[in-house]
Amino acid sequence: MQYHLNGFKPGNYEIPDAAREPAPLPPIIKLPTEVDVLIVGCGPAGLTMARQLSEFTDITTCIVEQESGPLLFGRADGISCRTIEIMEAFNCSEMIVKESYQLKQNAFWEPDSAHPENIKRTHKIADARLGLSEFTHSIVNQARLHEILLEGMKNSVTHLVPHYSRRLLSVDMDSQVTQDLSAYPVTATFERSDEGDANKIETVRARFIIGTDGARSAVRKGMSIALEGDSANKAWGVMDVLVVTDYPDIRVKSFIQSKENGAVMTIPREGGYLIRMYVELELLDKGQRAADIQLTEKDIIAKMQLIFSPYTVSVKEVAWWSIYEVGQRVADRFDDRPLNNAENLIPRGFVAGDACHTHSPKGGWGLNTSLPDTFNLGWKLAAVLQGKSHPKLLQTYSPERRKVAQQLIEADKQLSKLVATSPTAKQSEQQIKTDITDIEKFMARQNGFVAGTAIEYFPSYICTGQENQTLASGFNIGQRFHSAEAIRVSDGRCQHLGHLNKADGRWRLFIFGSDQNPTDSTSDSAQLIHFLAKSESSPVIKYTPEGTDIDSVIDVYGVFQQQDLAIEEIPGFLWPAKGKYGLNDYEKVFHADQDNDIYALRGIDRSRGCMVIVRPDQHIANILPLNAQTELSAFFDEFMLVPTY
Length: 645
Ligand SMILES: Cc1cc2nc3c(=O)[nH]c(=O)nc-3n(C[C@H](O)[C@H](O)[C@H](O)COP(=O)(O)OP(=O)(O)OC[C@H]3O[C@@H](n4cnc5c(N)ncnc54)[C@H](O)[C@@H]3O)c2cc1C
Description:
Elements (H helix, E strand, L loop, with lengths): L33 E7 L3 H10 L7 E4 L13 E2 L1 H9 L3 H7 L1 E2 L2 E7 L7 E8 L11 E2 L2 H13 L11 E8 L12 E7 L8 E11 L6 H5 L4 E4 L3 E12 L7 E5 L5 E6 L5 E10 L13 H11 L5 E13 L2 E4 L17 E3 L5 E2 L7 H20 L11 H23 L9 H17 L1 H5 L33 E4 L5 E3 L10 E6 L11 H11 L4 H5 L10 E7 L16 E2 L4 E2 L4 E3 L6 H4 L8 E5 L5 E5 L4 H9 L8
Parallel strand pairs: 1-2, 1-10, 5-13, 10-18, 22-23, 23-26
Antiparallel strand pairs: 3-7, 4-7, 5-6, 8-9, 9-10, 11-17, 12-15, 12-16, 13-14, 14-15, 17-19, 20-21, 20-26, 22-27, 24-25, 27-28
Helix pairs in contact: 1-4, 1-7, 2-3, 7-8, 8-9
């Protein structure tokens, strides 16, 4: 798809440029006085949390934003493979794939040794992330991603929409009642900024609060959570521009290192014409803010043009620009429990996204770490509020996501050193060559982390079974379920199994059959299916509320090696009757595709098979042998609650 030919226009890219107009500001909606979950901030972290909770009619959610309407342009633009996998869980990856720039190549430029004042291309390589996921790292406006999440919220069963023009002033947590799950320990005070009621004060009481209010988070401050690390010492100029240029790699992500004028990173943007440029500016003094250095977009353009010599870059339009400082910092905890938490308390307040980790924009990690923070938290909070899981589940958010944030800060420090040079430094040619090669090596080494696909949670009761890892060596316990295709038995359709892991709060259990035919009632798979369908200690039987569909809590799939399966020979538990008419669900049984064999791709033991248990956030929770029925029950008994309704 192409757009922005005659100027940048924000909004829904499905509407042609000529017809796309800015949406009117959303109306002011009265704030509720009491909710289950209060989310502060409509960035990617807040909207993902809201999108997840909007799936549940029995949870009341309120999301509040200080701006008068949704973001229109600017900020982050890189959407990692993992982020697109998460968007697929919300049923909207197609839109991103269709609208975005797909990053396939990187170009590296350095000073020309014959004319060091000029740059020359050293090489162009395939992006190191290709093949890590069925999706490609993509570039699209952060605002468009917001829009897709907002649309999903609005169209959900709860029709959730944000409350704009409210700034959080303070958060009060009543420590007397935080351990009473039914209580509302949070009182949040907001100030209105809309014309009609400017400065009016409103309060909301909540059972839980989520601070997704960015780097200067008022929620974080209200819960006295400290940020650790270095504060900003470097300013970066960033701009989205429409240009006419003779620089040949303008549609390729480029790392450009000049001899005397510093570095530029360019990233082609969606629509075929727009370009994002990161231009390294000045070192900041201690306590100095980027805003204090008083540079304008003209200064950024002038600096960029010097670096591009001998090529000319004529800027026709600046769609967005910003100068911002970067500090590499991480919060000492991601929830309101005291650091040592000796009393094993249940958290009632959380911080996510930039509110608990900040770093440079170079790796494109801001959005791509913030959004998975709340994708990790959302299902846990829903399960606790719905009485499906023990509240201790909420204690797993902070260690799981803080580990990722710490890895991110470490990676960012390494990349920052490689991409940045002091603008005044006159480097030797050899030094520049080394830097360029090191960037390339860094990207290759860290490709799984950069793509988000290698993010792995600590072993815990929801990431366990490491002793069985060899049963499926390509499904790493603690990492996300790495999708692969299989053929659906009922209709022959080729299906990406990872796309069955939707963000609906359900657990998934994939049975990968052994070399025994599952139609044989004595086979391991048939025995396991019988146990799941009939036994009192089956987690499916135990935790599924009466009167609800059999897959409403744990959704079981069968994937088999045998090619000649007929759906009617498979136990009916895998094509269950559901819904008000008792219609059969024929979409749970698969066989491996001989040309693209999931057993080979994911290292599944052909003779023994295995069970792969997948969390509602798509991470692998456990791998078990097919006959480990007792262990399967014990896994869920650790944190699930038997329904009382
Ligand atoms: C100016 C700017 C430029 C950036 N440029 C880049 C870039 O070029 N590349 C890149 O990768 N990343 C960039 N980022 C970072 C990236 O946008 C963030 O990492 C990402 O958006 C983090 O998501 P988040 O949801 O945690 O927080 P945010 O996206 O920051 O969202 C926080 C939201 O909370 C709202 N809020 C804050 N305080 C309050 C309050 N008291 N009451 C109510 N609402 C409040 C804010 O208005 C905001 O909408 C930029 C960020 C900023 C601020």
